[in-house]
Amino acid sequence: MRNKTFSLQIWDISGQERFRTSSPSPFRGARGVIVVYDITDEVSWGNVQKWLQEIDRYANTDICKMLVGNKCDLYNERKVTTKEAQKFASEMNFEFIETSAKCATNVEEAFFKITSN
Q: Which residues form the signal peptide (predicted)?
């Protein structure tokens, strides 16, 4: 997959409520979705379930889904364990990876994973 060219349209809706309640457009027609949560924030982790409901409601049933735990560089501040997130992702049939946008850890790998499915 690393030698193929892909065109990605990325919608960063950043937890914006207006997308959750009024517009299915970010999900309609999408072939993949990446749900990102902050490993240091339990509220962010709790919101994952709400976003999954919206994805299930508006997206195609065969959409590729990935769960990404961000800020893995802040391991001393972790509130959501890797094991907990891996278990959840496995139960939901999601790909899973932890990243650090700050340190660029696994960011490219997340996109490689989502495009390889």
A: none
Alpha helices in the chain (DSSP H): 17-21, 42-58, 82-91, 107-116
pLDDT in tens, 55-111: 888 888 889 999 999 999 999 999 999 999 999 999 999 999 999 999 999 999 999
Domain ranges of the chain: 31-116
Q: Which residues lie below 8 Å from residue 26, measured CB to CB, with a gap of 6+?
A: 11, 13, 19
Q: Which of 12, 8, 53 is nearest to 36 (CA)?
A: 12
Q: What is the mean pLDDT of residues 32-47?
A: 94
Amino acid at site 46: G
CA end-to-end span of the chain: 10
